[in-house]
Amino acid sequence: MNHIDITVLQQLQRWRAQGLHAVLATVVRTWGSSPRPVGAMMALCENGQTVGSVSGGCIEDDLLQRYTHLGEQMDHALGWAQPPQRVTYGVTADEAHRFGLPCGGTLELVLEFDPDAGALEQLTSQLLGGALVCRSVDLGTGQVTLTEAEAPQAPGIDTQALHNVLGPGYRMLLIGAGTLSEYLATMAIFNGFVVTICDPRQEYMDSLQIQGVQRCALMPDDAVTDFKPDLRSCVIALSHDPKLDDLALLEALQSPAFYVGAIGSRRNARSRRERMQEHFDVAPETLARLHSPAGLSIGSKTPAEIAVSIMAQVIARKNGNVTGLPEGQVGQAAPLDLR
């Protein structure tokens, strides 16, 4: 789940709690090129306010025209008491052009009218608590069911219901406090990650100036265990101290984390792999998951530039668009199929 999703759901809940009419739009299928992925959400209020997006803007404009202030095209016989609707944009070339969709792009939305404020409050509370929740919407009645999900998965729809697994958001655990971790944490937060910085060295933690991160003073291997990395998590070792970095990496490589990385020179990276194989019997296929030196090859020298290169590699791996090799070799990796 992306950070914007919880923002959409929270704002929608506030509107409904105030007694305002609102619509929740969810992208459920796409064909060809599409500005937003399956699962993207947008909420709009009868007063014209919106949050989130389902396209580049033109579809949002059409929805606003239809459903704000009980627009002229609203079905007044039903008003806001409508069952969910499935609508498709971009079927024809003219529609694709009108709604700003890429050539050949088509997307299908499910529109939910006046979602229940109580169910939304329960959902957002569970998501903020770190739960993984499947939100199922009956397409005939609009009835919403919330159930615990076992694993992240892409949204699915059939003739009877929309099933959308939400939460938890993307998380990043950084080992080692310092200037680089501050830059990288700032970029990660900007990209919707919840960031934890771990360093058992109190003097390093005391020097951190960044706000909005969680702090951890555990030993790195214990920190990784406590962090419980999942498919939406990444762990990056930044301390330059093998006693700290290696402990964290050994634990992280055994987890489902989508990205595990460590800074250092190529020589240091080779030495680290040799240590892990010789002293800890780490299998070559497990070490193949380690991005070290972390970051794409952009000639970075300063902490800020190194942070850019690492963040770019993390996002690339998250989106499944490149192999994420430090040499900057571009290829096709299997998409994570997660939001």
UniProtKB/TrEMBL annotation:
Residues 172-314 form the XdhC Rossmann domain. Gene3D superfamilies: NAD(P)-binding Rossmann-like Domain. Residues 15-67 form the XdhC- CoxI domain. InterPro entries: MoCofactor_Util/Proc (IPR052698), XdhC_CoxI (IPR003777), XdhC_Rossmann_dom (IPR027051). This is XdhC family protein. It comes from Comamonas endophytica.
